[in-house]
Amino acid sequence: MVYMLQSFIRTVKVPKTMTNLSIQTLAQFGFMEDTMKSNKLIKVFSRDKFEIVLKDSGFYYSNLGIDYPLYDINSLKKLYKENRRTELKMVS
């Protein structure tokens, strides 16, 4: 059983385009922490009135009380484009 599980783990590959989100990654894309909205439980990062919330060790886009989980950069770019109607690009 253990051998089967280990062989399965080795065969699953994550594409290089799927980079997990982190505070450093958000900073590369120009998101800054909003200290007025952040507290002990959550940290709020914003760019162009688009806010990402870090809570429970995960990143979320919160809108109208519904939290949309963000797992990687691709999901962040897609959601940003849907809301802001522009591409999300790295800040130089």
Structural commentary:
- The chain has 92 residues and is α+β, with helices and mostly antiparallel strands.
- The protein has helices at 2-11, 23-28, 73-84; strands spanning 32-33, 43-47, 50-55, 58-63, 66-70.
- Strands 1-2-3-4-5 form a 5-stranded antiparallel sheet, covered by helices on one side.
Detail the topology: elements first, then pairings:
Layout: H1 2-11, H2 23-28, E1 32-33, E2 43-47, E3 50-55, E4 58-63, E5 66-70, H3 73-84
Antiparallel strand pairs: 1-2, 2-3, 3-4, 4-5
Quickly describe the structure.
By secondary structure, this protein is of the alpha+beta class. Helices cover 30% and strands 26% of the residues.
Straight-line N-to-C gap: 49 Å
> Sheet bearing the most strands, described?
5 strands, antiparallel
List the secondary-structure elements in sequence, H or E.
HHEEEEEH
Q: State the share of residues found in helices, binned by percent.
A: 25-40%
Shape type:
globular
Key words describing this protein structure:
92 residues; 30% helix; alpha+beta; five-stranded antiparallel sheet; globular; 26% strand; single chain
